[in-house]
């Protein structure tokens, strides 16, 4: 992990649960300064205590924020600047889904999803890149999804936000490579976290059909950090996810449309 060992400060979004919490646990052994953000301050404080116990040499700062709110995002950036924190590793992980037909979706669920999954991820990268360039390098780990590889009925907006994340990451990687900044899109398949429960609409009936396979969050994070070390552009953690991604990319788009129209739908459940 030579690349990560040479970094100074990692900002991890969505660190209060799931994959983000796991990034914090694995990075605390490699990067000397960790900044945790999400909305639930109590959860972040508990994680900070655990990190300080497990990695006593690591400095941990907790800065809660609702990243779907542009003012709270600006305040997070201002608080970091006031504390002299200049992250050179950005783990752009915070994200939410909304499972169900688009026609019946509540705008108050769609709008913050767009602001979190797309706007916040882009805003934080935009705000931190100049500091990374000035310090001679850095890393941006954008947590996308296998869902970004194909259009998904009942997950139309979420899958589209992840298509954005993957596309943005690939272009940014080319733009920033010359500055010593590595950009990687992490594209997991299903992972057991709070994601599924939060994506389910209130009174929303059956769960998201994720019939294929689940990957432990520990492996998602360790494989993505290993891929970052190798300078990879995109990682699909786990053999089955990688196989599914290869299959999707090799499939003619007409077949893909047919396959997605035959997929078990929430409305038919
Ligand atoms: N789980 C999966 O199957 C799966 C598969 C592929 C990709 N992913 C992606 O992996 C990433 C992490 O998801 P996860 O599975 O770990 O889900 P999770 O357990 O629900 O964690 C989501 C994290 O995002 C934070 N978050 C949510 N809304 C936020 C907001 N408005 N402002 C700031 N932070 C917010 C949550 O913290 P607070 O609630 O405390 O704010 C939490 O820490 C997401 O980008 C997701 O799309 C997940």
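^ structure tokens above, recovered residues below v
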């Amino acid at each position: 992990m030579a690349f990560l060992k040479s970094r100074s400060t990692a900002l991890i979004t969505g660190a209060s649960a799931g994959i983000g919490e796991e990034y914090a646990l694995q990075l605390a052994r490699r990067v000397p300064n960790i900044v945790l953000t999400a909305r639930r301050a109590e959860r972040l404080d508990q994680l900070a205590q655990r990190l300080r116990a497990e990695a006593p040499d690591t400095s941990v700062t907790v800065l809660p924020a609702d990243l779907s709110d542009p003012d709270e995002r600006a305040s997070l950036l201002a608080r970091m600047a006031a504390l002299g924190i200049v992250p050179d590793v950005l783990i752009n992980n915070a994200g939410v889904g909304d499972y169900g037909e688009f026609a019946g979706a509540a705008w108050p669920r769609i709008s913050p999803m767009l602001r979190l999954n797309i706007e916040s991820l882009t805003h934080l990268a935009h705000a931190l890149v100049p500091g990374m360039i000035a310090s001679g390098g850095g890393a941006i780990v954008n947590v996308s999804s296998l869902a970004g590889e194909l259009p998904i009925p009942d997950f139309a907006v979420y899958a589209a936000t992840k298509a954005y994340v993957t596309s943005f990451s690939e272009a940014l990687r080319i733009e920033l490579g010359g500055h010593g900044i590595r950009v990687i899109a992490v594209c997991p398949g299903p992972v057991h976290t709070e994601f599924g429960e939060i994506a389910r609409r209130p009174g929303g009936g059956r769960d998201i059909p994720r019939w294929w396979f689940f990957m432990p969050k520990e492996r998602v994070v360790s494989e993505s950090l290993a891929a970052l070390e190798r300078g990879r552009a995109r990682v699909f953690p786990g053999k089955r996810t990688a196989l599914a991604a290869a299959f999707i990319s090799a499939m003619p788009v007409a077949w893909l449309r047919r396959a997605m129209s035959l997929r078990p739908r929430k409305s038919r459940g």
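The chain has one domain: 2-268.
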